[in-house]
Amino acid sequence: MTVTRGLEGVVATTSSISSIIDDTLTYVGYDIDDLAKNASFEEVIYLLWHRKLPNAEQLAELKQQLSENAALPPEVIEHFNMYPIQKVHPMAALRSAVSLLGLYDDEADVMDTEVNYRKAIRLQAKMPAIVTTFARVRKGLEPIAPKQDLSYAANFLYMLTGKEPEKIAVEAIDKALVLHADHELNASTFTARVCVATLSDIYSGVTAAIGALKGPLHGGANEAVMKMLTEIGTIENVEPYIHGKLENKEKIMGFGHRVYRKGDPRAKHLKEMSKKLTELTGEPHWYDMSVKIESIVTGEKKLPPNVDFFSASVYHSLGVDHDLMTPIFAVSRVSGWLAHILEQYENNRLIRPRAEYTGPGMQKYIPIEQRG
Ligand SMILES: CC(=O)SCCNC(=O)CCNC(=O)[C@H](O)C(C)(C)COP(=O)(O)OP(=O)(O)OC[C@H]1O[C@@H](n2cnc3c(N)ncnc32)[C@H](O)[C@@H]1OP(=O)(O)O
Ligand SMILES: O=C([O-])CC(=O)C(=O)O
């Protein structure tokens, strides 16, 4: 048996959703740079789910479906009061809430292409309300119902703050959602596909994927980057802090990638946004510190920043609580998970690799009274 640890380089499926070839990321053949500049998140959802950009009518229909389905069932809102919400990480709350949503969807276990598409809309639509309701309830604030006439990104900010968001904030969130929407067979997407390849339901697949995204080696890295920036505190402290970590063989969060070698094409967009937003908020030190960290880590370890590195200072500048950074990633990535889940159902085969056994050889059962 040949063991490929971490399945590095293993091609486990075909997919027509997104590709990473020679450090270029495309969604259905559209370069991420093109989409980041021009597309709205709703257009990207449509693209990932239908493999084509929507025309005006199709986009309007999707937007309407998303806003009609954006509100949470009262049972899901109430459940946030049923556990020690102050101690719970929002990713754990999101994971549980998505699982709970499945209990209130009469079609949760219906395996039919059209029904699965309807479930995808319902789930995508509700993700912002889950995150923002949790964020408000834990502060003792009333949840805010979604507004029908707002875009997906604007509604997220509106439900979070209760105020009509500024244009620049909406544009920043919208672009971040576009940039995070899909990424070939990353760990959380693979998790979703493994789960539904048993012909389990969409809610189970997305619940499992949220669990995988939560870890700091994957989506959880953006929150870890902000924690690092906060610990560093000043530009003068960057060098001793980063050198200390590298000397201790500790990882610098937000750097490195399993697939990209020269660099993550999404990072430059977030870097640009970080510069602009940190200047606007009068806190340019977050950007300056990030750039200095980047120059040390790329210089000494040859590791470029990934999507999570500059997104930390972007979200911080938008006033987002630091532990909501990974949930925002999930609000975007659920579009990719759902595209992959639907693709998996279309041409399913159980995903079941092998393990090379390294435990003891054949042993004979020993009755408990004879064991040492
Ligand atoms: C959305 C996303 O998921 S993007 C990734 C987000 N995750 C992070 O930012 C966490 C930090 N980065 C990492 O842990 C890794 O680079 C990963 C998990 C992204 C990729 O991991 P892998 O492909 O398995 O690489 P692996 O962890 O084996 O690292 C290879 C070598 O580079 C080093 N390395 C990799 N990333 C880093 C880092 N961020 N800081 C310092 N060294 C690093 C490792 O220590 C290892 O060195 P060694 O060969 O001397 O032991
Ligand atoms: O592809 C990966 O391994 C991780 C990543 O960048 C993502 O999921 O966006």
Automatic annotation (TrEMBL):
One Pfam short name: Citrate_synt
UniProt-listed SUPFAM superfamilies: Citrate synthase (SSF48256)
A GO BP entry: carbohydrate metabolic process
Reaction catalysed by this enzyme: oxaloacetate + acetyl-CoA + H2O = citrate + CoA + H(+)
InterPro entries listed in its UniProt record: 2-MeCitrate/Citrate_synth_II (IPR011278), Citrate_synth-like_lrg_a-sub (IPR016142), Citrate_synth-like_sm_a-sub (IPR016143), Citrate_synthase (IPR002020), Citrate_synthase_AS (IPR019810), Citrate_synthase_bac-typ (IPR024176), Citrate_synthase_sf (IPR036969)
Active site location: H257, D308
Keyword Acyltransferase listed: yes
Any one GO MF annotation of this record: citrate synthase activity
Pathway note: Carbohydrate metabolism; tricarboxylic acid cycle; isocitrate from oxaloacetate: step 1/2
GO CC term (a single one): cytosol
Keyword annotations: Acyltransferase, Transferase, Tricarboxylic acid cycle
Domain of life: Bacteria
Family statement drawn from the similarity comment of this UniProt entry: Belongs to the citrate synthase family.
PANTHER family assigned to the protein according to its UniProt record, in alphabetical order: CITRATE SYNTHASE (PTHR11739), CITRATE SYNTHASE, PEROXISOMAL (PTHR11739:SF4)
Name of this chain's protein: Citrate synthase
Gene assigned in the entry: citZ
